[in-house]
Amino acid sequence: MTDSPTDRRLLALAQSFRTTLRHAVYLSRSMDGDGELTTMQMSTLSMAADEPLRVSRVAANLGIRVPSATEQIIKLEQAGLVSRQPDPTDSRAVLVQLTDKGRAAWEEASLRRNERVAALLEQLDDDERATLAAALPIIEKLNHTT
Fold it and tell me: 127 falls in which pLDDT band (50, 70, 90)?
């Protein structure tokens, strides 16, 4: 890598962005300490909310190994929140999907967390909220480039 001013600025921006993301994760994890679902359980339910998901994808998204993800999913299955089925396209893989009970629990926890974030956003003025709203598509774009 060359040592141009642009590179230093990009590295500084990268560091600031990573720090902000880390703090956002901390904030998210502290959002629902009184809820019944752990942060990891909530993350797993969120991933499977749109469509059935392979256990390997859950593990990759959580940054853990497949056996650890399987352990988490088994706990959710025992609680009646998810079900596991063989992947029809690959007999070695397992798909995880929300049960009706899991969807209800996920929606309830999501609403509770959204209300807490909304309370934080109330502290911002209109311009700050607009700036945040404008940044979200950019962050979403970065989320889908890895």
Answer: very high
